[in-house]
Amino acid sequence: MASSNSDHQVGSRDKSVDWYAKEGPNVSPTTREVLEKYSKIPPDQVVKHCLEIRDRAWQIYPYPCIGTFRFLDLSISLLPVYSEIVQRLRTGQQKFLDLGCCFGQDIRRLVYDGVPSENTFGSDLKLDFMELGYEMFLDKNTLKTKFIAGDVFDDNSDLSQLHGKVDIIQASAFFHLFDREKQKKVAHRVVKLLKPQQGSLLVGRQVGSINPGEYLHRTNPESNMFRHNDVSWKELWNEVGNETGTSWDVTVELKDLAGVGGPRALPTDGKQQNMEDIRWIIFSVRRTG
């Protein structure tokens, strides 16, 4: 029996998989504005440019967010707290870190909206994606963001230079890559990175579920991913707070997962999860003590 496209592992770079869009992207007005006005890309070249960047990134590593053009969402601008983030960073007195930044696309949105780039940092496991970001946004000679290639689980990585120095961290589509125990380790690292004061803020969005639990995911076949709902996400941060002697106000919003192609079943750890159960988890985690 022939296997379905969804059975292919991500690392194969097979373009027949269902997470590689066969047609060009529908670039949102917000993203188009950044590409045309910030990057100075001619309007009739935007789609072609995005296609070329996507295919080059696919060869670096074919993540589903690459194949489906999710990197064009500029998702930070969709967060309920975005106006607060911009207001705080525009002062030039606060620092921002995008954890798992990919191309650094959300940083470009912030810079376009008036945030000083010298106070922004991006981190990812692969420097190649961050380097490609310069070509996506054509700002190699102007952007002052510091990009750091480092493993969030390695306390000796270059990320350690930011311990206790960051005011706002974004971690979108990041926590959901790991099982719950590893997510807790990431959360502990976030606590170390943020300034030890009230108002330090973690924001982001990730794939969750109305039925929280661990599921097998195709980007990392060696591990399960834990998908949260609002209750389980708050429980995680209660545990982290107790373990670190800190306290956090956690806000969570569940939204329908757009653009998934309708209900379908995903392979999971001994069970099937229907796509109707999947949600976007939009969150903010604010230090209160």
TrEMBL record:
<protein>
    <recommendedName>
        <fullName>Methyltransferase domain-containing protein</fullName>
    </recommendedName>
</protein>
<comment type="similarity">
    <text>Belongs to the class I-like SAM-binding methyltransferase superfamily.</text>
</comment>
<comment type="pathway">
    <text>Secondary metabolite biosynthesis.</text>
</comment>
<feature type="domain" description="Methyltransferase">
    <location>
        <begin position="97"/>
        <end position="196"/>
    </location>
</feature>
<keyword id="KW-0949">S-adenosyl-L-methionine</keyword>
<dbReference type="Pfam" id="PF13649">
    <property type="entry name" value="Methyltransf_25"/>
</dbReference>
<dbReference type="GO" id="GO:0016740">
    <property type="term" value="F:transferase activity"/>
</dbReference>
<dbReference type="InterPro" id="IPR041698">
    <property type="entry name" value="Methyltransf_25"/>
</dbReference>
<dbReference type="InterPro" id="IPR029063">
    <property type="entry name" value="SAM-dependent_MTases_sf"/>
</dbReference>
<dbReference type="InterPro" id="IPR051654">
    <property type="entry name" value="Meroterpenoid_MTases"/>
</dbReference>
<keyword id="KW-0808">Transferase</keyword>
